[in-house]
UniProtKB/TrEMBL annotation:
It is a multi-pass membrane protein. The chain crosses the membrane at residues 21-42, 347-373, 394-422, 456-475. This is Peptide ABC transporter permease. The keyword Transmembrane helix applies.
């Protein structure tokens, strides 16, 4: 019997009992839809986890530290990263950084130095002050390769030009204003809205965000060594006048110009958000000016930042660096942990959905058993006409498989509609832009993570699984049909 004949018989037999076929297919639709929807919720959690980590910084960045990373310079590891792994036995220097760049899968690497604390002033008579300014330095030749981004301005092109973090201007207080009104609320870390009670407890929302006191791109900044108290520790309460006088008296103050604002990315250091970023050579020159007695040779690398070509290779690169005697930290361990949790959630949700498909499989088996019982005479006639056992078994399996395929396809379509509706409700609107975001999750500029995410492979898996379950359910009735004796079947009234 040709396959086209089997398809013709399948269509004829399924439409013979339309109501029963529709109900059976409906069971498969519900089961398939349950699996896809449940697993899509787990995929949505995975997307939200990735977006949460991405908001902390570049996931392809590895922070490397060596035996010289302790001391006067503070650690400059990205916020939110996993704890360092390995034990440092090697010194972090220019040669080590060069070795990192030669490793497979490494896109760029740079040494990283953090100046502990500096006094920054700006405006007329140094009116605006920041007594605990953060200054970081990298090899500016690696700026683009490391993936740094600018939100405005340009990279340093002349001597004395530096980059500022996206919200650095908000770190400056106005020394001529009363306390409580001498600072500006930055747009980061504010709530969407605050109740009266929350506001009384210090809550700030988007309505409180203000422009900084001055334009940091057009105002020169004076950098001086941070004033110290009697114990030698940095004082955070020094006024602008004290800073100015200290700088003038010692001749240690120097002016710099901010040429561009960095896009916030804690994976590349705090300076991208709040602080100044400059070339390593410029930092050494700056320290020599504001602290003439300090030895610039002591400005050893706090750490090195290594950017990997792809997040899938982060673990390999970390392993290679640790074998060289350095310690490493990255977001990989946290990401792997979150992925493991997500997989567990997906298995649980998928198992719940699979129960519905198992129930549908029972319905398919019942339908096929009834079909065999009703078509005993037909089976006998087919055998008498020369149909082989293989042909009869194939006929019933094709019918069972068709129920699975039809139910699986419809179930996937229904799941897609449900997923779309869930995401649009999450987004709060329906438009071309919203639809693009709900389906693709990108291209709209929106930073919200979708609740329901259906990857293409899930559709394929759902249809294949529904078909397999249907074939397994129909195998028993098909064998029962094969075992019906031809003469007895012809005599049957069924």
């Amino acid at each position: 019997m040709r396959f086209s004949d089997l398809v013709h018989l399948c269509r004829q037999n399924l439409f013979r009992r339309k109501s029963r076929t529709i109900l059976t297919v409906l069971g498969v639709v519900v089961g398939c839809c349950s699996i896809v929807t449940m697993v899509s919720l787990g995929s949505g959690i995975d997307e939200q986890n990735k977006q949460m980590l991405a908001s902390m910084g570049d996931l392809t960045i590895i922070t490397v530290t060596g035996t010289n990373s302790a001391g006067g310079m503070q650690a400059a590891g990205p916020m939110g990263m996993a704890d360092s792994s390995g034990t440092a036995t090697a010194r972090l220097d220019d040669k080590a950084v060069k070795d990192f760049r030669s490793l497979q899968y490494v896109a760029a690497a740079t040494g990283h130095i953090t100046y502990p604390s500096a006094s920054l002033t700006a405006g007329p008579a140094n009116r605006y002050t920041n007594d605990a300014g953060t200054i970081e330095a990298i090899d500016m030749a690696q700026f683009d390769a490391m993936g740094y981004k600018l939100v405005s301005g340009h990279k340093p092109e002349r001597q004395g030009e530096v980059l500022a973090g996206q919200y650095t201007a908000y770190d400056f207080a106005d020394s001529l204003r009363l306390e409580g009104d001498n600072y500006r609320v930055a747009p980061m870390n504010v709530a969407e809205s605050c109740t009266a009670e929350e506001r009384a407890n210090g809550c700030r929302d988007k309505s409180d965000v203000q422009d900084p006191f001055f334009n940091i791109l057009t105002t020169k900044i004076t950098v001086a060594a941070a004033p110290s108290d009697d114990s030698g520790s940095t004082s955070s309460s020094s006024t602008a006048t004290t800073t100015e006088n200290t700088a003038s008296a010692s001749g240690s103050g120097t002016q710099i110009q901010v040429s561009g604002l960095l896009k916030e990315d804690y994976g590349k250091g705090q300076a991208t958000s709040s602080g100044l970023l400059m070339d390593i050579g410029m930092l050494k020159d700056l320290v020599a000016k504001i602290q003439p007695g300090a030895a610039t040779s002591s400005l050893a690398y706090d750490s090195a930042l290594v950017r990997v070509q792809d997040i899938d290779h982060v673990a390999d690169v970390e392993s290679q660096i640790r074998t060289m005697g350095f310690t490493t930290s990255s977001s990989r361990d946290m990401l792997d942990s979150l992925k493991e949790q997500t997989r567990s959630i997906q298995l649980i949700l998928g198992g719940i959905g699979a129960v519905a498909l198992v129930v549908a499989a029972i319905g398919i088996a019942n339908t096929m058993v009834m079909s065999v019982t009703e078509r005993v005479r037909e089976i006998g006639i087919m055998k008498a006409l020369g149909c082989t056992v293989h042909d009869i078994r194939a006929m019933f399996l094709v019918e069972a498989g068709a129920i699975g395929v039809i139910g699986g396809v419809i179930g996937c379509l229904v799941s897609a509609v449900i997923s779309l509706a869930i995401n649009l409700i999450r987004y709060g609107g329906v438009s071309t832009e919203h639809l693009q975001w709900a389906i693709l999750g990108n291209g709209t500029g929106d930073e919200s993570a979708r609740i329901s995410v259906i990857p293409w492979w899930l559709y394929v898996f759902a249809i294949a699984f529904a078909t397999l379950i249907s074939l397994i359910s129909g195998f028993g009735p098909a064998n029962k049909a094969v075992r019906v004796p031809a003469l007895d079947a012809i005599k049957s009234n069924q």
